[in-house]
UniProtKB/TrEMBL annotation:
The keyword Ion transport does not apply. It comes from the Bacteria. Coiled coil: none annotated. SMART domains: HTH_LACI (SM00354). Residues 2-56 form the HTH lacI-type domain. Keywords: DNA-binding, Transcription, Transcription regulation. It comes from Xaviernesmea rhizosphaerae. Pfam families: LacI, Peripla_BP_3. This is Transcriptional regulator. Transmembrane segments: none annotated.
Length: 327
């Protein structure tokens, strides 16, 4: 039976370093982690915790952190991740952060208690998240851009998506475009989409309106736009996701305003219900299911084959629906 000492010798490192990598018990460089995992894979080494798992007939697991399980975007990704992990013999553990940076730390701690093979994380903001300071197993960011601390990520170019959607409304003649979003500190996706909006308005010499930020966790059916509509007089509203776009449309209708007769509305994500409504929602369609499958495959490649951590970026597309009209 292969020993940890043999793995360390094959990897050219100390026994302590090999133990830290395979036990996720301390900081090591990404290069060192890859060398140790590759040596373990080549030698067929099974840490005692995995051997014990096999003896108890308990499947290995991966941990998944998402902001909210009620959002169809994350549900689509989860379904694809679970299907891919099922093929590899892994179970899936799910935790929610509820868009709260503090809760995401405790949620990841809970996932780590089950000694997962790896993690797939959607963080509020990976640049500032304390999660990435923890001793983590192989980890892939999903929907977050990579960082020096965490180079493995599967994303879409959200900034470019924001620019594309704002550009579409500008092409329709709108010059007063309001951006309604969840709190930027709770979602780098929303912040990047807003930055893309700012980019294209600046290029075209159009003044942006101050963004309206609302809580992600709450009742969008209670959204009140009365004050900001009176103050800013927009002709179009971009919501940072489709669920919020539905809330915007509901708020406008409660004020007796029609979409798109009085105001145009657009969102991001391309969830199915947006295409079932009348008129269909103008949105940026994101490849959520594909992203989940790609993230799962990347994680398994890193964990089982010591593959290099890398950033994989998928494409988005503009879906021009009936909620945005020319002015």
């Amino acid at each position: 039976m292969t020993t940890l000492q043999q793995v360390a010798e094959r990897a050219g490192c100390s026994l302590a370093s090999a133990s830290r990598v395979l036990g996720c018990s301390g900081p090591v460089s990404e290069q060192m982690a890859r060398r140790v995992r590759r040596a373990a894979a080549e030698l067929g080494y099974r840490p005692e915790r995995l051997a014990a798992t096999a003896r108890s007939t308990r499947r290995p697991v991966v941990g998944i952190l998402i902001p909210s399980i009620t959002n169809p975007v994350f549900a689509a990704s989860l379904s694809s991740i679970e299907n891919r992990m099922l093929l590899s013999g892994h179970g899936v553990l799910i935790a929610q952060s509820h868009y709260d940076p503090e809760r995401e730390v405790s949620a990841v701690h809970a996932l780590l208690n089950d000694r997962p093979t790896g993690l797939i994380l959607t963080l509020c903001d990976p640049e500032s998240s304390r999660v990435l300071d923890l001793p983590l197993p192989p980890t892939v960011l999903l929907n977050n851009p990579p960082t020096p601390r965490q180079p493995a990520a599967v994303t879409v170019p959200n900034r470019a998506a924001g620019a594309t959607l704002a550009g579409h409304l500008l092409d329709l003649g709108h010059r007063r475009i309001l951006f309604v979003s969840g709190n930027f500190a709770a979602s780098d996706r929303a912040r990047l989409r807003h930055q893309g909006y700012l980019d294209v308005l600046a290029r075209r010499g159009v003044a942006p309106l101050p963004p309206m930020q609302v809580p992600f966790i709450g009742s969008y059916d209670q959204l009140d736009l009365t004050a900001i509509l009176a103050q800013e007089a927009p002709t179009a509203v971009i919501a940072s996701n489709d669920l919020l776009a539905f809330g915007v449309i509901g708020a406008l209708r409660r004020q007796g305003l029609g979409v798109p007769q009085d105001l145009s509305v657009a969102g991001f994500d391309g969830i199915a219900i947006g295409q079932m409504m009348t008129p269909a929602l103008t949105t940026i369609e994101m490849p959520d299911a594909s992203m989940g499958a790609v993230a799962a495959s990347l994680l398994l490649d890193m964990a089982e084959n010591a593959a290099v951590a890398r950033h994989l970026q998928l494409a988005f597309s503009l879906r021009a629906g009936g909620t945005a009209r020319a002015v």
